[in-house]
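Reopening this ticket.

The earlier resolution said the output was attached, but the attachment link was broken on my side. Pasting everything inline this time so it's all in one place.
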Amino acid sequence: CGKKSEEPPLPEEPKKLLAPAKIGDALVMLNWVNQNISSKGLPLSFQVLSEDVWPKTVNEHQRMVLKKGLVIYDGALAQILWAMSQDKEKADRLINLYWEDNLRGYQTIRASNSGNKTQPFIYRNPNDTPVSEKDKRGYIFKIIDVDGQWEDEDVLTGTKKRWEQWQPISGENAWAGVIGPLQAYFQAHPDKEYSSQDVELRLAEEIARAAMLLQADNGGIRYAPKGTWHENDPEQSNPFKEEWAYNEQSTENNLSWYAAFKMLSEITKKQQYQQALQAIEKYLESVYRPQEGYFMQGMHYINGQWLLNEGFASDCQTWAILSLGPEKIDELFGQGATYKLWQKTKEEAGVSGAAVEITGIDFTNYRRLGREAMVSYEWTGGAILAVKAAADYYANTAKKDFAQELTKDALSMKEYAKAAAIRQDDWAAWPYASNKENAPTGFGWYAPPAPNLSLASTVWMAFVELGFNPFVLGGGPQDILHNELGHTEIYNKEIKQVFMFTGGGFGAGARPQQDKDTVSKNEDNLAKAVLDYQEWENKYGAKAMPYEKRLRKIYELFAEHRVRGPPHLEQIYVFIGEPFDMPVLQLLKFYPEFPALSLRERNEYLVKFFKADEWSIRQKKLLRQITFAPYFKFSGNVPYEARAYLAQLAETGYLGTGVVSALGGIGVKFIGNGSGEEDKIARMKPEEVSGYYEPKTNLELYDTLSEIFGQPWQYYQELDEKSEGTSWAMYHSHMQYEELRESVFGLDAQTYQLKFGAKVLNIILDKTESRKSPERFLPDEFGAYNGCSIYEPKENKESLDNSSLEEGPGQLSLLGDEGLSPIQVIIGVLIL
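Inline output:
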């Protein structure tokens, strides 16, 4: 990898309050983005932390950008983060601004002239391709003044200076016009019901139209339209002869447009975007150097032909992995090409430290620039995600050694990034790069002097924390289930495999005799209950894990996903179902810092959670991929056929006992207790089941109910004994959720049960009462009582008609592609 450089120094702290931040909480990164906005509510690309920065800058133009500039690419990153946090109002600001072209103080922020004005912008032939009316306009300018001032006072000299950032660049427009808006659009439309009249889609198609006008015969998108100023133009004073940018192509820009056209193709299904994408793929093949194993920075049109540009750009390599994908790169350029690409990136631009081989990446080969190495935190964030994606890919091939090495590099870079963040109070952010003084990047701009904070760097580090690949609509599989780098036991690239935490809620082996077919009994059954790995893996290709390891994974899931909820979800909680659940106590024993809530506290929190109307769409996506039930024993076991069918219906790997029984009506009790009659019970209608209930005595539970609800413990014992076949869980559950139902849905418990519960369960039972139709539900062997079920989800063969379900005031749809029951949402909170 060449001679190692000295480890770049961390940015100096301008104040004692500033200190390294932890990377483990994307919420604090979002907090900084939210406070670093202009008076018009637009994000700023930078925050300068000391007046000492201004004398060190290159010129007044750099100072103007640092003070009040928004690079529209940076804005798209912020927009995606806002959309992920369900802050639609902020995410829509930029979309509306670009579409309406109404930044106060500017005549326009769109390069839409057709060649007949003082400053022409020509995309192809101005006579037959108008770019000056809605749906047919041109690009957005690369950088805008967030206050809309075309003239402002220089922060250093005090003199009046004009804003000179009027360059409409292809790459920035791929992000601001397509990738950012469509990622936000995707988050806002989990039902995938898209309309061509929605402003997000209109803007994306409008900007894509301009890009396709700039697509050259070699498949690449040109850098900018004619009339775009560039310092390399020989006649800079004549805008009609500014063609250098028009004759330039950037690989970075084309990787962005590859992703943009792919998103448009997925949403609109229009063939023109697939064709544009395929043309870019042709360009990318032409700029790849197979001998060296990397992508060239771009091409330039000279004397009637496109010639390769010399120079190494780090992000052209890492973005290729994120945009094309490791599998595609290996398909195009040979097995191992992605690995070779990263090795070349490390060799050219990797920055090593005293004790590690890689701490991050520079913009280019710094040795050729004659300066010290510096880490670009924005480009390093992309590198971490790219290298982890490559590791995941090779982990499923014969190149397992590649996966191990790549994972080590990703972890090394991520660890270094932790120490580079700056925080104050409740926010954390990253500098643009690790340099102290102005430093050339090698691509025509300078990394600003420290101390500064960068929107691009900070959001990319948030993407690392969330495992979100912005080049993929919805963020890719990492967006669904992403744990600490290197922890792959419960992560699968396509989420085709189910990794289930088996047992009654969190605990496997609580009833070893009853679960004898699936659970091996050890000396300490509760702590060491283990599924028969070999049998399940050989028979179904499924995975399982020991009890203690499972609890640790549950903890990691909670910790990793807490930011996925609404902004006020600031703490990790264990929501205890029946308050003294032994597996949860074991979890608390392993992690004593993990706070718990009482039933009352949990209910109060959930009411607040629902009323905030901010529960995340991301929870829906997560629940549709993998769901495991908390220890809510409302109604015991349910027909495992119904459970399997509902799992198919909701497109999940698994829905736990508590979920299905709650959907089916809280008063319905399916308990076999090892009586051998589970099969018979599973076929029964709700009204036939009550006689199979066996009352239990649980003084500890009565004490708990007394403490929470105020009645003497004997009151709850009496309810239990007099229930006449109806579980105390029915009464307990009514009390437990009455406040939630009344506050959120306007329904009392009895109305909820009568109106929705039994009806839903009957529909499920009607669908699954016969075991002779394997296409309608999973085979018998996939089911087991008490939630001990592991299987790979099958394709749903039919859908449940829920059109007959009446909905009360504010009632969420109980079933269907996007509808979630209150209990499902509770589980979503638990996962968070």
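Reporter confirms the inline version is readable. The two ends are 41 Å apart (CA to CA). The chain is about 45% helix and 5% strand.
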